[in-house]
Amino acid sequence: MEDLPDYLAVATKDGREWTLSFDGGMLIVFDLSPPGTDVFEQVLTAEPWTESVERVDREVFLFTTTGALTADVVLAHCVDVCGEAFRRLGDSPPA
Fold it and tell me: Is the model's pLDDT at 93 over the cut of 80?
């Protein structure tokens, strides 16, 4: 998980509307591959710094922040979200 930031990409045009995408190798780690779960999306949506979240593909999320943020801050927040989602997935009983 140390290299997690290398497997995430964030992009914005204005500091408020963001795209977060995962490298394909991370899809299984966060249960994003079909059938998958919505744990990551739920955690991202619950964050106080997000206003809206939309999953547009299995590995791509669009979200709006409550204020303009820099890419390094958003990436750090997204790494935190990944950690929380990973913990929740680990606490889930097997299907």
Answer: no
